[in-house]
Design goal:
The structure is a single chain. The chain has 28 helices and 24 strands. It is an alpha+beta fold and about 750 residues long. Helix 1 crosses helix 13, helix 15 packs antiparallel against helix 23 and helix 18 crosses helix 20. The strands form five sheets. Strands 1, 2, 3, 4, 5, 6, 7, 8, 9, 10 and 11 form an eleven-stranded antiparallel sheet that branches. The protein has a domain of about 280 residues. Strand 2 and strand 3 form a beta hairpin.
Length: about 750
């Protein structure tokens, strides 16, 4: 038992460890009234919760869409004009590009509606309403049910509720678990399927700083692209047709010309992808010391090989531009995450929380019965995963499936398995025929962005890493051929596989898919790429996945119980659920930060910083001639301020992947920026938030308008937007920083700035 002094100390520790930090959290829009409205208004917001999320009237939520599968976009005109990030629209921009008509390099601007480019498969999804469906999903699920059986029951209930909700409508319904399955919420959706490319700046603006500046601050990137949603004559979703009309939204965001000041209220509204804020210390250790280091090592090798070939051949550069950016994005994020967790001493902080939890559990017999085994079981499970299982899983996902040929071979292995159920005397039927048809159609698109020589280098390098870095018990027997026949020469083995497989040529694949079922299956099962992928997959299925799945299922139940206990222990704390690609609100304020001793970053950057970074010899820092001309003339139109052109700013909003393209909204509900990144020092915020260093990075809305209007000459697009200038959110005097002025996002003395200019 605790004496009074120990109890007071425990309470103080609990308060300091458990309360969410200022500006932390990704909140459910439907719960803002009860959880966040008062705090948001205290921080300066002039809206009500009903202005943000409402099912009875138009609200901010009606201007927010999930763009494609993993980004956010916002509606900025009453004619369906959609703003998102350049990197979110990158795949579509690339798909319309060729060596002869390189939209990535040159940019694109539709000067008429007829010039707007369709994008098959691209969608924009609105949220119609949210609903708490916990009772419907869990009402008939008994406590103590094994996790696999529980999940089956839950999924059946989800399907039933979805069908009941959407029957007779064109709406969809997404039901997701929250708090590790303690609660369930449904999002009723409306998805539009005719989305056309309207405008994109050249890469030298939309990707300025490239992978060099990715995840970094100061930042000077005009990371935006413009699309338009089209609808049928009834303003409802429709497949592409030249007769479709621009969509009329319930709400579009007005764009503020007043700009931002330090301390201003900011709100990010979007679809954050995945966070894991409530993990135990063992899971954080696994991420920081096993998984992240392995994935970084593999991707470093892969990126180096892609970079070499992209620099050597402009065709390869276009083919691999989007792929490289995708691989690089997570690679750099993981590096920052490892460093941030270490600097934050995250493992020790989690351990302290667990000590406090254990002490709370020990106070009552009922708690011991419910929660007593949670922490010991975590220790046991993660100990088993650390015995090579996590590493083997990461190497299968990153090294084996990081080879395009082997990743591609998954479809053909699936086809071979499907053909086992087909009568050899008959044509493929059902799912097998559907797969054949799909593979025929997809082959052209796949090979448009594929270079065999590049992939072969990646194959040799990554598979050699797999063999060297993993315990031999995870090696497929088939790889003995590399040592026995090829004397350890992975390049020679790659020559054999790529020279023999039918899957490295579009023409060979089309010929292959014309064969009768029996011949097709025989060819696939003897193809060296399919055989190799099958060998790796068998090892994964038999030696990795069973243990990984069992322990992961157990940890899911443990996390659910642990979080239930934390919420019981802290009844007055406002808990927010982890991100799961559902619509959320985060809020904070415009604010600089100190990344390291003796270094302070200011909260905004300007066009002057682009000119300071310019280096024609470095692809990431090339500056278009037209932009330099506008800078030299200070021709900023109504978008500049005091002879400067704002470019980007940072704030303390809690964001993650999926928030790319999210609107940054001021206290009055006006668009002031578009979120596109986080700072490197804050990437650990997916696991643990630090108010002193976590910052989201956004393009200033005025820079976006400047590029569209003054640089691109697409003023017709600006004319359909609603521009407002309602003045600053707070008195300017409240935001002055004594003795310093911003230079490229860093604060320095005025004397130092004068000296720098003179030099």
């Amino acid at each position: 038992m605790f004496n009074s002094k120990q109890l007071c100390l425990w309470v103080l520790l609990a308060i300091s460890s458990f309360n969410a930090s200022a500006d932390e959290g990704m909140w459910l829009p439907m719960l803002l009234k009860q959880l966040n409205e008062a705090d948001m208004q205290k921080k300066g917001m002039r809206l009500s919760a009903e202005d943000i999320y409402s099912v009875n009237k138009s609200s901010l939520k009606d201007a927010i869409v999930q763009f494609g599968g993993g980004c956010t976009g916002e509606i900025i005109s009453n004619q369906g004009l959609l703003l998102t990030n350049h990197h979110c629209g990158y795949g579509q921009i690339q798909s319309h590009s060729s060596v002869e008509n390189d939209l990535l390099t040159n940019g694109f601007w539709a000067m008429t509606r007829e010039q707007e480019k369709p994008n098959p498969g691209l969608t924009a999804t609105f949220i119609v309403r949210m609903e708490d469906v916990t009772k419907q999903i869990l009402g008939d699920v008994p406590a103590g049910l094994p996790e696999a059986e529980r999940e089956q029951r839950v999924q059946a209930n989800i399907k039933k509720v979805q069908e009941q909700t959407t029957a007779g409508t064109h709406y969809g319904a997404i039901i997701r678990p929250f708090f590790y399955g303690n609660e369930y919420y449904m999002y009723v959706t409306e998805t539009f399927r005719d989305i056309r490319l309207v405008g994109a700046p050249p890469e030298s603006i939309g990707k300025f700083g490239g992978d060099t500046d990715n995840w970094m601050w100061p930042r000077h990137t005009g990371d935006f692209s413009l699309f338009r949603i089209y609808a049928g004559p009834d303003n409802k979703p429709a497949d592409y047709s030249p007769n479709n009309k621009p969509f009329t939204p319930k709400h579009h965001l007005p764009i503020s010309l007043a700009g931002i000041q330090e301390g201003d209220f900011t709100m990010v509204f979007g679809f954050p992808g995945r966070t894991t804020e409530y993990l135990p210390s063992q899971a954080v250790r696994e991420i920081a010391e096993i998984s992240d280091p392995a994935k970084v090592k593999i991707r470093t090798t892969r990126l180096n090989l892609l970079d070499q070939d992209m620099k050597a051949d402009p065709k390869v550069r276009i083919q691999y531009a989007a792929k490289y950016a995708s691989v690089s994005n997570a690679h750099k994020k993981w590096i920052g995450e490892m460093r941030g967790l270490k600097k934050l001493n995250a493992i020790a902080k989690k351990q302290e929380l667990e000590r406090q939890f254990a002490a709370w559990v020990a106070q009552e017999t009922g708690r011991k019965n419910t929660y007593g085994q949670v922490l010991p079981q975590f220790e046991q499970n993660y100990g088993q995963l650390a015995q090579g299982v996590t590493l083997a899983r990461d190497y299968f996902m990153e090294a084996v499936l990081g080879v395009e040929l082997l990743n591609f071979a998954q479809n053909y292995l699936n086809l071979a398995n499907a053909l086992e159920r087909v009568d050899p005397a008959a044509a493929p039927q059902g799912s097998a025929q559907e797969l054949v048809d799909r593979l025929r159609k997809s082959a052209t698109g796949y090979f448009k962005n594929y270079n065999l020589a590049t992939d072969k280098k990646v194959f040799a390098a990554l598979l050699e890493m797999y063999v060297k870095d993993l315990d031999p018990k995870f090696h497929p027997q088939l790889l003995k051929v590399v040592t026995d026949k090829y004397k350890g020469n992975w390049a020679a083995y790659a020559d054999y596989v790529y020279g023999t497989t039918q899957l490295a040529s579009e023409q060979k694949i089309q010929n292959l898919l014309q064969l009768p079922p029996a011949q097709l299956q025989a060819k696939l099962l003897t193809d060296p790429a399919v055989q190799l992928l099958n060998a790796f997959a068998n090892v994964y299925r038999t030696r990795v996945l069973p243990t990984y799945t069992t322990l992961t299922d157990q940890n899911t139940l443990l996390n659910r119980t642990y979080l239930q206990g934390l919420r019981e222990m802290q009844k007055d704390r406002k808990f927010y659920p982890d991100a799961n690609l559902t619509l959320r609100v985060s809020y904070g304020q415009v604010d600089g930060y100190k990344p390291a001793d003796g270094v302070t970053y200011d909260y905004y950057t300007t066009l002057e910083g682009i000119m300071e970074k310019e280096d024609p010899a470095v692809v990431d820092y090339k500056v278009p001639a037209k932009l330099k001309e506008l800078y030299q003339k200070k021709d900023y139109g109504p978008y500049g301020v005091n002879g400067q052109m704002p470019v980007a700013f940072i704030a303390s909003n809690h964001t993650t992947g999926g928030n790319s393209g999210s609107p940054v909204i001021n206290a009055r509900g006006e668009l002031i920026g578009t979120n596109f990144d986080r700072n490197w020092e804050g990437t650990m915020s997916d696991i643990m938030y630090d108010p002193d260093r976590v910052r989201n990075i956004s393009m200033d809305a005025r820079y976006f308008l400047f590029i569209v209007d003054k640089f691109a000459g697409a003023g017709h697009l600006v004319k359909e937007m609603t521009l407002v200038n309602n003045g600053p959110q707070q008195p300017a005097a409240a935001t002055n920083t004594a003795g310093s002025t911003p230079v490229n996002g860093k604060k320095t003395s005025k004397k130092a700035k004068k000296k720098a200019k003179a030099e």
